[in-house]
Amino acid sequence: MRWSAFVRPGDWAVVAAGAALVGISFPLAWQAGVAEKAIVRAGGAVFAELDLGREQRIEVPGPLGTTTIAVERHRVRVVSDPGPRQYCVRQGWLERPGEIAICAPNQVSVQVKGSREAYDSLSY
Hints:
Pfam families: NusG_II
Order of helices and strands: HEEEEEHEE
Protein name: NusG domain-containing protein
Keywords: Membrane, Transmembrane, Transmembrane helix
Oligomer: single chain
Radius of gyration: 22 Å
InterPro entries: NusG_2_sf
Organism: Rhodocyclus tenuis (Rhodospirillum tenue)
């Protein structure tokens, strides 16, 4: 006998309702709200909290030199860093809560925070 002979119309309704529930809840579970501020750390300690609504530019001292961070149009980025590989500069603009740029050699990082905490593998 084929397996489809055992499936009734109510079974299909339960499968469809389950799929719809998963489809609706998936984006809601990963949402972190609106980006409000950027947390700048130097040497593991908080150096500054930047309001993303105000355009500004700050310089953060580190072991290798000065890292420059800019805020424009509700987004933030590392403009320059004395590190050799420039990974944090290449990260570009950060605008969603949970995004982070880490300048590891200079021990500087900038992270975007929102109204709610973003879900990630570390939160689990």
